[in-house]
Amino acid sequence: MQALITISNIISMLASVIIMLVIIQFVIGLLFAFNVVGRNQFLMSFYEGINRLLDPLLRPIRRFMPNTGMVDFSPLVLILLINIVLIVLDGIIMGAA
């Protein structure tokens, strides 16, 4: 039982990191879109690195999402799916207790 709780905590921590990266990607994208910050080399490389990390998670969601024009809702869907998985995982662990 303790092993399941440990695994759940590790998955929860990784999910939190992914959610933080999604939020950072969103904020930097907004800053670029509204020309709040210039496209300097550091921010561009940081933004591209986050995109490379998140693209394998966002690409399948984008494939099934309808085209909404300028607004990309796939990061929101990813955050919702991660939270659903965490809730189901917690329910499974509590049921096993």
TrEMBL record:
Keywords: Membrane, Transmembrane, Transmembrane helix. The chain crosses the membrane at residues 12-34, 73-93. It holds the Pfam family CCB3_YggT. It comes from the Bacteria. This is YggT family protein. It comes from Qipengyuania aurantiaca.
